[in-house]
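Q: My collaborator sent me two sequences in one message, no labels, and asked for predicted structures for both. Can we handle them in order? The first one she listed is below.
A: Yes, handling them in the order given. First sequence, followed by its structure tokens:
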Amino acid sequence: MMTRVRIAPPDDSTADISGDNTTDTTADAASTDWDESETGPDWQSENEIPDTLPDDLPVDTAWEDVYQSAPAPAARNDDENDHDFETRNSPAETLRDHLEWQLNLTPLSERDQAIAHALMDAVDERGYLTSSLDEIYAGLTDETDEDPLEMDEVEAVLRRLQYFDPPGVFARDLQDCLLIQLNQMPPDTPWLAQARLVITHYINLLGNRDYAQLLRRSRLKEEQLRDVLALITSLNPRPGDIIDRTEPDYVIPDVIVRKHNGRWRVELNPEIAPRIRVNASYASLIKRADSSADNTYLRDQLQEAKWFIKSLQSRNETLLKVATRIVEYQQGFLDYGEEAMKPLILSDIAQIVEMHESTISRVTTQKYMHTPRGIFELKYFFSSHVSTDEGGECSSTAIRAMIKKLIAAETPKKPLSDSKIAAMLGEQGINVARRTVAKYREAMHIPPSNERKRLV
């Protein structure tokens, strides 16, 4: 059975894909169904320049004389947006700005202010001190001529700064950071004393997840330790991350995939395919019978504009064609998820659309597809394959999804090792080595089994 693929023309910017699973590898002329009746941007009518141009218009006019700038947008009287005028393009607040603001509100002597700034200079983006108190003290004493500075003064200022927001800043290490946050909690907080005990004396056992030793040494029951760990895990080991430091980077998808009447429909995002036209006033200045320098210049510029518009059309057609073939090949992913992803390489698409592999690589780089399952780079749909016992192939993306699913369903007290996961995949007919499982697991930022062990 042949798959019917209809790639819409530039004036439609859409393509429909049938639900068949086979692929027609014939030329595009055989697999493309142009439909002028479809709705969409009218590329043809807006981008083409009429061949017949008026001859009775003057041509001895400079380009700048007929240029008219776009009218300025009308002023908005929307009061609700006035408050955003100053902050719309302002840089994001950094942790240092947040600490400086609090320091300016804290009554300190000039001597303590100098100590506070020295301590603040040593704080990194996480909120931790990157220098020891001895080093900070040595740097301050070198600048002091009279009335020598005492270490007690530095420690006193540090204790005061450790009450700044966010809780846990100015800590010397992780243990100090967690204790600072515990000390700021109300005294009647449940399990507060036990949490301090565990952090103060047994933080290494907690880091190694050696719960057997932790239960024995802390003399806590398993249910009690579970409540203590719940309190500890509510703390923030990186308090500086609470303060936003960077603006969010939004991705605008290049193509949009929707399911309409049981068929996947691919269309260009209008935001990345704007309607571009040549200004009719400029085009009308060209006089075919005139060979003056001005007219020749205008004619050259008009031709370059035509080429530019044609290049944009070609780029959009290629992008739509490649995205359509990808969606056609990966319908299983759209219907069932990552575990149904098929192996796909650039050469497979290049052969179908009859383009060079390097062209496919450029088209799929930094181009994004919006699907019901999320926004993905087109490169995401390409993956290597692993042979199965039945002689078939399974994509690496599908294997990653299987590993993630197995780990999500594991018993927290006895997490699955990489060898066990490889054996479980082998039972499903997928032959992967333990080191391959470890590589995929690390690529998904999943810690090893000893670090995933939990009491609950």
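Q: And the one she listed second?
A: Here it is, processed independently of the first:
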Amino acid sequence: MTIPVTRDGISDAYRRIAPHIRHTPLLNLEADPFGLGCEVTFKLEFLQHAGSFKSRGAFNTLLSKPVPKAGVTAASGGNHGAAVAFAARKLGVPAKIFVPEISSPIKIATIKSFGAEVVIGGARYDDAQTACNAYAQESGALLVHPFDAPETLAGQGTIGLEWEHDGLKPDTVLIACGGGGLIGGIATWWQGQVKLVGVEPDGSRCLHAALDAGGPVTVDVNSVAGDSLGAKRVGQMAYDIAKHTVDHVALVSDDAIRQAQTTLWRDFRIMSEPGGAAALAALLSGVYVPEKGERIGVLLCGANVDPTTIR
């Protein structure tokens, strides 16, 4: 297997992007707030620029490759597009973002607020990616892949580096999975040191399906978290990493995700999008059962949500 990214590559990425991103804080919860007999720490990555972890991979890509006159382009359900648009604006290059019809209005508005051109590229994410690929080939714009690229994986892996440097290293980390760039990057940093558990919605389980099948396969997507965790096929690079480093993938229901959103707002005043709350949903719903005294890290990865949707 060719390793797409290494710990040294992640360290290099962090030095590259550090002037442009936020070092997001940890929140060590007090006195076992969920009554599970374990210690819980949140990594507040939703405080990242553009509202999600995606800014790390976007900056690493734009700072690692020459950007042509045509600028950059990306296909996105919302968060990746917002991150690319933000990075492009900060670095002074044009951006054209292709989104599917299912993208939430608030995410489209966020992309536009950073000065990028937004194009509705079809009904689903795959349609938007096809339109984006055609534009990149025609225009020469730099295509910024949301998950299946070494630069993206290395950028997202800086979350693990940052977490470790802050001195609250967990026993287990719960990480929401879409196309696999997030868990693939973090797993590269922490492989063999921390138990890594992926979390996917029941209705959007591309990594779970790939691990069962022995390779990436196409799945149907039907979930409240589909705009951020709705990849129909996990990235090959992320799969190659995950099959050796991820303990397992837990599946959570849409109801459990909504309840986790409610809990985050009610108890912590954290406004999370569905995909951002999925990792906590695995813990609260009992899909992941911790050992007594286990130190659990929960990555809260996105906050681009319409507040009126939090019940």
